[in-house]
Amino acid sequence: MKNIDAKQTRCNTRNFLRNKLDHYLNYCNRKRESIYSLDIKNTKVDASLNTDLANQYVEIFYSQKVVYCVADALNNCTQTTGKPYKKFLIDRYLHLLNMEDIAIKYSFSRSTATRMDNKALLEFADKFLFSQLMNQVSPVIDLHVYQ
């Protein structure tokens, strides 16, 4: 099994959730708040379309699958009293709350909120990879950085 560079993996995951996710949301006409309303089961691409149009549909379909996997990964993150990773990630990266507001909301110190963010990001990276593999997303977006 490969060793993971936790610091770089957290950085990649944070960048994906803050910046790159918007690209996929735009392609499937979704906002961060509506990430859970996506249904990918009935999405199909008509092979008879011209190449440019077909490529656009493929990109839309791929984006829908990525967004679905983000929602699935978030849903599968730990949500317990000591590890509220799911709600923490949703508040931080979908509702875009800053760290001070997160700390107040969860009655954490800022340093505890930062530690929680670090742990939640690593868990999300694992769950997101697993969801993509289970949903046959290709190419897979692996947020992990390996040593």
Pattern of helices and strands: HHHHH
Number of strands: 0
Approximate strand percentage: under 5%
Q: What structural class do helix, strand and pairing data support?
A: mainly alpha
**How far apart are the first and last residues' alpha carbons, in Å?**
11 Å
| Average pLDDT for all residues | 89
Rg over alpha carbons: 16 Å
Sheet with most strands: none
Amount of helix: 55-70%
Low-pLDDT stretches are: none
Number of helices: 5
What's the oligomerization state? Answer: single chain
The rough form would be described as globular
Kindly describe this structure.
The chain has 147 residues and is an all-alpha fold. It has five helices and no strands. It has helices spanning 6-27, 51-75, 85-94, 99-105, 110-134. Helix 1 (6-27) crosses helix 2, helix 1 packs across helix 5 (110-134) and helix 3 packs across helix 5 (110-134). The termini are close together.
Write the layout of secondary structure elements.
Layout (H helix, E strand, L loop, with lengths): L5 H22 L23 H25 L9 H10 L4 H7 L4 H25 L13
Q: In a few lines, what is going on in this structure?
A:
With 147 residues, the protein is an all-alpha fold. The protein has helices at residues 6-27, 51-75, 85-94, 99-105, 110-134.
